[in-house]
Amino acid sequence: MTKLTKVLALALVVATLCLALASCGGLSGTYSNNGLFGLGATELEFSGSKVTITMGDLEATGKYEIDDDKITITLDNVDDGSASWEDLLAGFSGTKSFEKGDDYIKIGGTKYTKD
After folding, report:
1. Residue 9 within any structural domain of the chain
2. What is the pTM of this model?
3. 52-108 pLDDT per residue, tens
4. For the chain, what is the domain count?
5. Distances from the Cα of 4 to the Cαs of 11, 12, 59, 101, in angstroms?
6. Which CATH number does the domain housing residue 47 bear?
7. Enclosing domain of residue 46
């Protein structure tokens, strides 16, 4: 093999590896949903494998993992006490359907638009 052929083959391997790793990446940025008539507005902020979910004054943090068309969210600091807004945040925990578009995501059928 000539030196040029070896360099081109190596460049092709590196480019393929970069594309494969990029497709494994998660979400980044902030997505929001205004809720019904502005009530129950929700903001999801993704960074690496971490997610922060904010509803009004309530906030929960945790981790997420995407597997094809499913997302699994595990929240760290949601109280399992009596019925409250915190129960709504706890509803984000678990595995739900997932769809990603150019400027939105859908989790469990609810659409969140990228800010």
Report:
1. no
2. 0.70
3. 998 878 888 899 999 999 999 998 866 555 445 566 677 788 999 999 999 999 999
4. 1
5. 11, 12, 55, 40
6. 2.40.128.270
7. 27-114
